[in-house]
Each structure stands twice: as C-alpha cells, then as structure tokens.
Amino acid sequence: MKPQILLLYTGGTIGMIKDPLTASLQAFDFASLLDKIPELNLLDCSIDTVSFETPIDSSNINPSHWIEIASIIEKNYATHDGFVVLHGSDTMSYSASALSFMLENLSKPVIFTGSQLPIGDLRTDAKENLITAIQIAALQNNNKAVIKEVGLYFEYKLYRGNRTTKINAEYFQAFASLNFPALITSGVHLNVQHELLLKNYSQAPLIVHKTLDTNVALVKLFPGITATVLKSILDIPQLKAVVVETYGSGNATTDDWFLKTIEDAIAKGIYIINVTQCAGGSVQMNQYHTGKLLEGLGVISGNDMTTESALTKLMYMLALKISRKMFKTVFETDLRGEIS
Ligand code: ASP
After folding, report:
1. How far apart are the CA of 58 and the centre of ligand 1, in A?
2. How many other CB atoms are there within 10 angstroms of residue 22's CB atom?
3. C-alpha span between 273 and 9 (Å, rounded)
4. Which residue of 107, 124, 250, 257 has the fewest C-beta atoms within 10 A of its own C-beta?
5. Does residue 201 lie in a domain region?
6. Residue where one domain finishes, among candidates 163, 185, 208
7. pLDDT digits (tens, 9 = 90+) for 113-149
8. pTM of whole model > 0.90?
C-alpha cells in the first residue's frame, strides 16, 4: 500500500501568479498548481488535495484558519498517513507552532511548506520544497510514520515547526531554528536525525484542540519605551497574558516604573511571559540582577521558546482554563518539543 498523503493548500506565494494589471501577486486556483508540477505523479505515494475555499496570503492568517487546518486534518486523520500544508512563509512559523499545540498525541506527520517564488517562476524554490515535503510526509518505517510531529520544510531542511522563525524575506533560506537542530537535511539522501524526533510512544488517540484564546499581547522592549506605552497595553480590558521580548538572557530595565507596572499587572491576574528578543539562546532570569527582579515578581520564563511558540502556546493554554496555581508550571513545561 502506498502512503496516502493529503495536500492542503491555504495560499501563499507558492500558488500565486502576477496580476497582469497591477503586477502584484495574488493567489490562484489550486488545480492549476498541480498542473504546474507533473513530477508529483512520479512520487511513491498517493496524493489527495484540498484547498481553502479562498486561498489567502498568510499575512491574513488568524486563529480561525488554524482551526480550519486542524479540522481538515482531524477529518482526514484516519484515512491519510501524512499531511502537507502549503502556506505562505510570512506567518508559517506561527501556524506551525499553533498546530503543534492544537494537535495532541499526533502520530502522523504534518509538514508545512511554501516558497519564496511562485511555482510558475523559472527560478522557483517551490518545486523542491513541495516535492521533498511530500516525500518526508510519506516516510515510513514498518508501516509507521517516521515523523510524528508538526514540521516545517524549507530549503533542504525539515525543522520542528514550533522552533522556527522567518528570518529572511529575500533568500530561499527563509527560516531558521536557532535553538534546535534540523530534524532532516535533504541532500542526495534524506538524512534523518532519528534521535531528535518526537517519539509519541503512547497509543492515545489524536485530540484536536479547537478553542484558542486570543486575549494576549506582545511587547518588545527597547531603550526608551515609556510607562504610558507599557501601561496602556497592560490596561487593555480582557487581557489575560503578555509575551514580553526582553534583552539577552531575559533582562529588562530595573526602573521603578517598569517593575511596578509589571507587578501591578501580575497582581491583576495577567500572566507575563519572558522571552528573549535575541534570535537564539534562552531566558535565564537568575543570571543577571536585571532578570532576577522579574523572576521575583512572578514573571514566567519562556526559556528558549520562540515568540511565535510562546504566543500560540498562550492561546492554547488560556483556552484550556488551567488554574492560576498550575499555569506557570505548565507553561514552563515542554509540551511539544518547543522547549529544550
Ligand atoms: N506574502 C506571502 C505569504 O506569506 C509570502 C510567501 O508566501 O512566502 O502568503
């Protein structure tokens, strides 16, 4: 039996063409995408396709689309061995992170991919990305999927989805996973780092979490940020949690107004998550005095999570209605390989 792969087209450059009038890129009909790659017929798997009714530029992605992707996977989970999600690169890391949390007990591959150039472009990176992503989704060992997690394949590397960040709008190598090595490198052969893969030994059935709580915010610190800016964010009605991108290993100003504002927010019940604004490395709040003060106030450590992962983990966890007592512990726990 050939592995059965479901290809889900959500939109993005990979399936776009130039509007002859405006010269801007717009999504086009998915059926023509497959016409553009007859090579797909040579792959040793069967491919079914499904498309968003209106494919979108991934800048328009929001949690309702994540729920749609998760629901399509759920509906086809029993009948398919692997899933490839074609998605714009702009927000792909957010979507891959969100799906990693929404799909609990995943035992089949869900591989996000896209491209920097449209599939019809002469110099396109779309073909390699798409073909190899499908091959990875079809990888099996004793009739069992090799990859049992949400991955992101781009420019010869499969990364754990919730470890990635888009780092370049120009080069084909658009993504990086600075705190975790690539799971697969594609050369003449697919070089699988088996020891890095999530194992999922449990026989537990897939649980698809379709509720996300978006009462979250993101603040990036910068020298000169004012009390008015920080306070007005933390005063937003209904706000439940904020990811604060701090400096270096989780450090922030020790100015009284800053610490007091954070303290007041925590007292009001808002969760404050500390992630570093550095591309790589992790938050260690006990390393410097400037971080230690935050820890003392009850700030939660994002450890070496990406901002994309921290935000989507918050949306997922807030919807689970985890008790105040447990929230910090659960957030600081590695749930889907997002923390080292
Ligand atoms: N703007 C596009 C998108 O994210 C870029 C891409 O597909 O790479 O949908």
Report:
1. 6
2. 8
3. 33
4. 257
5. yes
6. 208
7. 999 998 878 898 999 999 999 999 999 999 999 999 9
8. yes
